[in-house]
Amino acid sequence: xxxxxxxxxxxxxxxxxxxxxxxxxxxxxxxxxxxxxxxxxxxxxxxxxxxxxxxxxxxxxxxxxxxxxxxxxxxxxxxxxxxxxxxxxxxxxxxxxxxxxxxxxxxxxxxxxxxxxxxxxxxxxxxxxxxxxxxxxxxxxxxxxxxxxxxxxxxxxxxxxxxxxxxxxxxxxxxxxxxxxxxxxxxxxxxxxxxxxxxxxxxxxxxxxxxxxxxxxxxxxxxxxxxxxxxxxxxxxxxxxxxxxxxxxxxx
Length: 252
Description:
Structural class: mainly alpha
Radius of gyration: 65 Å
């Protein structure tokens, strides 16, 4: 376990108590440590100091940094404390205050303050690093926002262009429909003209036929007249000349 909160859990396990009991031991409100452990958040330095004061057998250096052993090495101080009125608990902790215990706690306090200053410097360095990272993220977010705004403006402009193209397409469709209607009308007119022309051609053919028939009839009558004149012994040429000489405006 590498975090400060993990090491506090180890202390509670080593003492055979729950975190709530440890909170009660150091005078913290219920949930101060347990919530920090659950959420992975930092705790105030005063609670670390109170843990060191209430558990003098715990190494402050190990508690703060994780370096070394959890328990302090046993020295002759325990016997000295006993000779000056200090009592040793069943787990090796000093639970009464003799002169040596006070000196021992002052030494621990000095070590704790030194480590606390070291940790404070580390936290301040981490805070400065985090601040620079946050500023970099803010700059990046601002760039992303500016780019997003540019894209939104571009989309708006394209929407306007698309609306214009749609209007042009509708206009072209209307022109196409009008041209198609005009073409259909022209085709209908051409068809009608073709029908009229066909009727005229047919009528012309019929007239030509009638003219040919009339011409044939005239020839037939001429031949008949010639035959009649020749039967009377009159030359057709003489007959025509005589008619022209006597009465040129009358029929012979």
